[in-house]
Every structure is written in structure tokens, then in C-alpha cells.
Specification:
five-stranded antiparallel beta sheet, alpha+beta, 2 domains, 295 residues, three-stranded antiparallel beta sheet, Aminoglycoside 3'-phosphotransferase, Chain: A, domain 2, Phosphorylase Kinase, domain 1, globular
């Protein structure tokens, strides 16, 4: 759908993108995302413009800088312009389509996940300094997740099976101490097929959307995959970890299951509060799968 940029944003983008007078602008926002995104086709090519609701979301800039050090030139968008005051960025476009929407054959899907594992390993292995303040924020984040699990267990415990209750109880009890033994890294923050691009002709994989990137537990980048993909597709888990270059340690596996269980019970709680059957079903499925997962 063709649309237009807000006037102030259009004026700013015009200073960085040639041919805005005749550019075709289309809304490319993610339905459940906070940022507004536009695809702009101008004289000299295509770019994406993103507008964030707060200055905190400008971590996209830091993510682009990290990507430039960690990844190949064509594996992530280039930051072409940023306006911290206006909370906006201009990013280069990449070839390929979003993986989440692609009907891939099994062998091709395994290849995509293997490449995604390799890319994430390089992303994690590229060090960023982590300040004392960031260390404290990470600790507080893990503690908050454990406390959330405890509160939901107290409120909804009778709606969980005994095995699910034990799992959520373990999350509340053990996650903070377990997290202290885990490796830290600069996380992508939303590592899932909706942020992977695949160019089938060139067999090329790329990564987008860095607005959640920040220092944290490296294993947190695997939570979506653990909860949504791997339970029914162990072949994709094998492919991903082959690309990542190593299996998870027993401590990482236990922490990953507990982190994913926290997400699942949060989905369930929010779904029951909002009478959202999608979240209820999603949360229930994640908890059932994590009960069966090795930990």
C-alpha cells in the first residue's frame, strides 16, 4: 500500500536520500511492533526508514555498528543516517525475503537454519564492552523474569499441570543463580525467522531489525527457537547448532528451558487476562514442550 512519511520525517529523509520528490513510499511496519517502518523506492535505489516511539529504541544504531564489525558486508543493513532527537534511522535494503513467510522445502529450510546458526555465532563472538551498569541491568532483568514466574505461579498455579507447576517453580527458584554462570554477549534480542532474509537464487542469508539489541545472556537469543521451532522440528535445532559450531552445555540447556518456560507462562498469563486465545494456546504449548525438554 502506497502511503507517505510524516512531514517532518519526510523533510529529514530528503536530506539523506536523493530523489524523494518522486519516491514511492509504502508502509512496511510489523503489525505488533512499536516502530513505524517505511520502504522507500527512490531514484538511486531502495531504503528503509524507521521511526521509534522512544529514544531507547535507538539501539538499532548500536546494533548496526555491531553488525558492521561482526558480519559480512551483505549480511546486515547499513546505517545510512540517524537522528537521535527525531528517533529515526535510514537503513539500506538487502536482497531476499523474510524467512517466516517463505514456504521452504525441508532441505532448504535446514540450510537457512544452519546459516542462521553460523551468523549468530559470529555475532556473539564479536565482543562489545559491557559496563558495570549493563551488568547490573542484566542481573535485574533475569531476577525480574524469575519474579514474574513466581507471581504467575501463585496466581495461576491451579490452571497448570503438576509438571508445569514444577517447571515454573524451578524457573523462579534457580534462574538467577544459573544465569550468573552463563556467558554474556551482545544479543540481537529478537533472533527469529521474521528477522532473517533469504535470497534463494543466491543462497544468501541476512539479518535485520536491531532495535532490541543489547548486552545480555547469549543463550537468550535462542529462546524463540527453543519455544516455537525446535520442539516439533529437531532437525532445525540440529542444523542451527551445526552452524553455531557447538552444542549447548548442560547449564546453557537448563537455562534455555527455564527462560523459555518463563516466556510461555507469561504468554499464558497475558492471554488469560486479555481473553486472547492465541496467547493462551501459545503459552500452553510452550509449557507442554518445555516440560518434555531435557534440562
Amino acid at each position: 500500500m502506497t502511503t507517505s512519511l510524516p512531514p517532518d520525517l519526510h523533510q529529514w529523509v530528503t536530506r539523506h536520500v536523493a530523489g524523494m520528490e518522486t519516491a514511492a513510499v509504502a508502509d512496511a511496519s510489523w503489525p505488533r511492533g512499536d516502530a513505524r517502518v517505511w520502504r522507500v523506492r527512490a531514484v538511486h535505489g531502495e531504503v528503509f526508514v524507521k521511526l521509534y516511539p522512544s529514544t531507547e529504541s535507538m539501539s538499532e544504531v548500536k546494533g548496526c555498528e555491531h553488525a558492521a564489525r561482526a558480519l559480512a558486508d551483505t549480511e546486515a543493513p547499513h546505517l545510512l543516517a540517524s537522528d537521535p532527537q527525531g528517533r529515526a534511522v535510514v537503513l539500506s535494503a538487502l536482497p531476499g525475503r523474510v524467512v517466516r513467510a517463505l514456504p521452504l522445502e525441508q532441505a532448504e529450510e535446514q540450510r537457512v537454519h544452519r546459516l542462521a546458526g553460523n551468523l549468530l555465532r559470529r555475532w556473539h563472538d564479536t565482543d562489545e564492552p559491557i559496563s558495570d551498569r549493563e551488568h547490573q541491568r542484566i542481573k535485574e532483568s533475569v531476577t525480574a523474569q524469575a519474579n514474574e514466574a513466581a507471581m504467575i505461579l501463585e496466581r495461576l498455579g491451579d490452571q497448570l499441570s503438576p509438571a508445569e507447576q514444577d517447571l515454573v517453580r524451578d524457573t523462579a527458584r534457580y534462574l538467577p543463580d544459573l544465569a550468573q554462570t552463563l556467558a554474556l554477549a551482545y544479543r540481537h534480542g529478537d533472533y527469529s525467522p521474521r528477522n532473517w532474509l533469504w535470497d534463494a537464487v543466491a543462497e544468501h542469508h541476512a539479518l535485520i531489525d536491531f532495535e532490541e539489541s543489547a548486552p545480555g545472556l547469549a543463550v537468550e537469543d535462542l529462546v524463540w527457537l527453543c519455544g516455537a521451532a525446535w520442539p516439533t522440528r529437531p532437525d532445525l535445532r540440529d542444523a542451527f547448532l551445526t552452524g553455531y559450531g557447538r552444542l549447548l552445555s548442560s547449564t546453557e540447556q537448563r537455562a534455555l528451558v527455564l527462560l523459555t518456560a518463563r516466556l510461555g507462562v507469561s504468554y499464558l498469563s497475558t492471554g488469560l487476562t486479555k481473553t486472547d486465545t492465541v496467547l493462551i494456546d501459545r503459552g500452553g504449548a510452550v509449557l507442554e514442550d518445555m516440560v518434555r525438554a531435557p534440562r
